[in-house]
């Protein structure tokens, strides 16, 4: 039940296999990845990192980042990835919130990082990389610090199953992101389910499309490495470029693709997939949001040969239900695909509005328990407690907040949220976090953010604003303001200006009438 | 108005009409960042590429679809110039 054991094992069994590749040519073998992560482990321990600590990293997706992840795990700490493209204010908040004892950071982000800590005085130990790519920069940083005396080589930690492996931050409705705590048991039980379900082999080449702060990366990284396969890292820019992604899948002989539906939908529309055989592609996995059926049909029609799976599950459980899409998809089908059945390492139940198991065919909130489920949010005991519910004889289940119905064939169908959270590009977005951001704008008096389903966007986020003075604000200026505080995928798609927002009879903002405007 | 100014105005008007309805035109300057501020998201970027290819008779290759080539009106005009 030790997550990093997969690398130790793989380095023994397949030392010369390529463990990780970058699309611009960087590559590293299992043997070298193992020893580079050992060196970081030793450096972290010498800097005072102890088992149970959290260690952050602010590094673009790269071999250096993968080696960092394993170095942190081997030191017995939990890794905390921050989105390299997110505003520094947000990243600084995350790293301070979980009190990281060290951060591995690219030099160009270092000043922004230190600025976030300066108010509090002390800052974590910092290992600065001149860049990222090939593992070269991490190696150089370690070489630099080793000049003179090296650090003692220590043994890799042997964490207990309930020790933290990583903390992944997601959108918080009050405006501050919250950290989902995930243990070695949580991770390993999930990775084992992946192995059983998808039967990976050393010949597999898995894409790494998702960023490392997104839990899709857990399947990517640990499935690839556990089985001696190759993980092909796709950077952020290429990752938004449908034609480029089609080229990568084809030319780099990707056998397993995993991502949110929105990028697959873009690939189906703009990726010119008909020109790409992608002969090696055997599995297309998607998760994180509803896949608009029009684009899924188009994707399957252009690439009919792989098996397609809809995976569902919040960060708190990783994947908890799954469904294989029967292909080809009949023309007449207009409903989105079901989310399927609960994974074998977990149990699920639907609860009605009184928290009792919902009757046959009735809608209920999907609640999950088992080895893959988080124990809660970092330093948020009340929020954590609210997220769990005792069912029947007192077994504690995690509330997904998703409303689901059971179909006659036993598959679950997703029906919507209980609250104000939506998915954008597969990422969680609390509408309240967007509102909190806009309320910080000096000219905004009132704001209400609503979301409506939209055929091409998935969900369209619309911010309704009443200004303090004047009628409206510059869209360009508002978007720039947002981009400095929240990630790009959270920036509203549309803004409307009102002299005052509509109110209900109890003087609260009338969200329903705003939704009716469209 | 020179040929280049005409091109920039054409692109500026397209972006204003498609993605910034109601915005004061003077706020969109030759150096206003577009992708890094979310004004051009993934779908908008694809639509812009299609517009540029039709309007200027050029082909934009996959590796040119990034901030370096598209983040400002200036950069976009530079891209078009490089194709002639």
Detail the topology: elements first, then pairings.
The complex is a heterodimer of chains A (about 525) and B (about 80).
Chain A: H1 5-13, E1 18-22, E2 27-29, H2 30-46, E3 54-58, H3 63-74, E4 78-81, H4 88-97, E5 102-106, H5 107-117, E6 125-129, H6 136-146, E7 164-170, E8 178-183, H7 184-198, E9 205-208, H8 216-226, E10 230-233, H9 242-251, E11 256-259, H10 261-270, E12 283-287, H11 293-302, E13 307-312, E14 321-325, E15 341-342, E16 346-351, E17 363-370, E18 376-377, H12 381-386, E19 388-391, E20 395-406, E21 412-417, E22 421-424, E23 427-430, H13 431-439, E24 444-454, E25 458-467, H14 475-483, E26 494-498, H15 511-517
Helix pairs in contact in A: 1-2, 2-3, 3-6, 4-5, 7-8, 9-10, 10-11
Chain B: H1 3-19, H2 42-56, H3 67-70, H4 73-82
Helix pairs in contact in B: 1-2, 1-4
State mean pLDDT of chain A (0 to 100 scale).
94
CATH superfamily of chain B: ACP-like
Number of domains of chain B: 1
User: How many strands appear in the DSSP assignment of chain A?
Assistant: 26
How many extended strands of chain B?
Answer: 0
Number of helices of chain A: 15
What is the C-level CATH assignment of chain B? Mainly Alpha
Task: Give helix % range of chain A.
Answer: 25-40%
* Name of the level-1 CATH class of the largest domain in chain A: Alpha Beta
Radius of gyration of chain B: 12 Å
Proportion in β-strands of chain B = under 5%
Name the helicity range of chain B: 40-55%
**What percentage of the residues of chain A does DSSP assign to strands (E)?**
25-35%
End-to-end Cα distance of chain B: 19 Å
Please tell me how large the radius of gyration of chain A is. 23 Å
Average predicted confidence as pLDDT of chain B: 93
| CATH fold-level name of chain B | Non-ribosomal Peptide Synthetase Peptidyl Carrier Protein, Chain A
Count of alpha/pi helices of chain B: 4
State the distance separating the first and last CA atoms of chain A.
Answer: 49 Å
Low-confidence stretches of chain B: none
């Amino acid at each position: 039940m030790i997550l990093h054991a997969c690398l130790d094992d793989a380095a023994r069994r397949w030392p010369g296999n390529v463990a990780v590749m970058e699309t611009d040519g960087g590559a590293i073998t299992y043997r070298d990845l193992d020893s580079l992560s050992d060196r970081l482990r030793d450096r972290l321990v010498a800097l005072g990192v102890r088992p149970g600590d959290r260690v952050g990293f602010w590094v673009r997706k790269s071999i250096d980042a993968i080696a960092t992840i394993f170095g942190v795990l081997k030191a017995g700490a939990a890794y905390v990835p921050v989105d390299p493209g997110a505003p520094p204010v947000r990243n600084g908040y995350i790293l301070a919130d979980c009190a990281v004892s060290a951060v591995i950071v690219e030099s160009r982000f270092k000043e922004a990082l230190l600025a976030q800590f300066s108010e509090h005085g002390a800052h974590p130990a910092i290992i600065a990389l001149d860049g990222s790519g090939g593992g070269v920069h991490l190696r150089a940083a370690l070489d630099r610090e080793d000049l003179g005396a090296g650090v003692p080589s220590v043994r890799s930690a042997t964490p207990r199953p309930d020790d933290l492996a990583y903390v992944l931050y997601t959108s918080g409705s009050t405006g501050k992101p919250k950290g989902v705590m995930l243990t070695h048991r949580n991770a390993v039980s999930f990775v084992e389910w992946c192995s059983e379900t998808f039967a990976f082999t050393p010949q597999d080449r898995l894409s790494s499309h998702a960023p490392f702060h997104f839990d899709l990366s857990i399947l990517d990284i640990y499935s690839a490495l556990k089985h001696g396969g190759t993980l092909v890292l796709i950077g952020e820019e290429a990752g938004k470029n449908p034609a480029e992604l089609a080229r990568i899948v084809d030319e780099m002989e990707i056998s397993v693709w995993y991502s949110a539906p929105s990028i697959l939908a873009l690939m189906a529309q703009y990726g010119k997939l008909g020109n790409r055989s992608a002969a090696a592609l055997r599995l297309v996995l998607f998760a994180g949001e509803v896949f608009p059926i029009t684009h899924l049909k188009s994707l399957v029609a252009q690439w009919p040969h792989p098996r397609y799976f809809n995976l569902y599950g919040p960060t708190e459980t990783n994947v908890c239900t799954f469904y294989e899409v029967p292909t080809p998809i009949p023309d007449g089908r207009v409903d989105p695909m079901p989310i399927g059945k609960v994974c074998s390492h977990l149990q699920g139940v639907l609860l009605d509005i009184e928290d009792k198991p919902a009757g046959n065919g009735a809608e209920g909130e999907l609640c999950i328990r088992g080895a893959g489920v988080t124990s809660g949010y970092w330093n948020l005991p009340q929020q954590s407690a609210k997220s769990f519910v005792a069912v029947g004889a007192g077994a504690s289940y995690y509330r997904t907040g998703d409303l689901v119905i059971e179909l006659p064939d036993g598959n679950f169908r997703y029906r919507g949220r209980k609250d104000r959270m939506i998915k954008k590009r597969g990422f969680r977005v609390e509408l309240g976090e967007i509102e909190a951001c806009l309320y910080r704008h000096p000219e905004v008096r009132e704001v209400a953010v609503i979301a409506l389903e939209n055929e091409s966007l998935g969900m369209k986020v619309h911010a309704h604003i009443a200004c303090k003075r004047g009628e409206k604000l510059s869209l360009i200026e508002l978007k720039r303001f947002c981009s400095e505080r929240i990630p790009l995928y959270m920036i509203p798609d549309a803004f409307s200006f009102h002299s005052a927002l509509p109110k209900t009879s109890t003087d609260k903002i009338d969200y329903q009438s705003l939704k009716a405007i469209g | 108005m020179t040929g280049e100014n005409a091109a920039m105005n054409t692109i500026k008007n397209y972006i204003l009409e498609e993605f910034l309805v109601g915005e004061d035109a003077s706020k969109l300057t030759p150096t206003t960042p577009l992708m890094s501020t979310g004004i051009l998201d993934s779908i908008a970027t694809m639509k812009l590429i299609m517009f540029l290819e039709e309007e200027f008779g050029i082909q934009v290759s996959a590796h040119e679809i990034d901030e370096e080539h598209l983040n400002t009106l200036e950069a976009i005009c530079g891209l078009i110039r490089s194709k002639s």
